[in-house]
Amino acid sequence: MTLQTVLIVAGAYLVGAIPFGLLFAFWLTGKDPRQHGSGNIGATNVVRTGGKAIGLLTLIADIAKGAAPVALALYFADEITVALVAVAVFLGHLYPVYLRFKGGKGVATLFGIVLPWQPWLAVAVFVVWVIVFGLSRYVSLASILAGLSLPLFAWRLDASGTCIAVMVLLCLMMIARHGGNIRRLASGTELKVGGRER
Q1: Do 86 and 117 form a contact (C-beta atoms < 8 A)?
Q2: What is the rounded CA–CA span in Å between residue 163 and residue 5?
Q3: What pTM was computed for the model?
């Protein structure tokens, strides 16, 4: 691995680690989303902390921070570097150095990673998310099932082996971050949109 690649990957991690949910909520409301609701810095909990507008800002920013480094890598580097950048961005969001490695669950950032790399794959998993959410009103369930569909759709859309391998890895990491949600879904205690997460 060249020094240039190391610097690119390190930069991708630092971009992924930017905690937009925390920054927007604190700047605009003076509240720390880690002290409210689920304690998560992602868009869903930011909505609970600061309202829909700040949640939307967080969603857009988290998607963008996944998409921008991958898009740049696609333009300037080979696919192996793209894969490393994708993993680094995602790890940055999940384990941000700025917050003592306590980050979000990665749903929006994962979508951002997929968007420039495999646009039709992004469309497919978004449709899955919308359908599951529309039927269940559970953000967590929609995110988990959309994540599980990611490697399958990548395979069906003839993505490269490198891309499929990265999708499997990121999907597993994202679902692992939803462990608490999975337990609440199984026990029937997960709340739908509009309720406070337990």
Answers
A1: yes
A2: 18
A3: 0.92
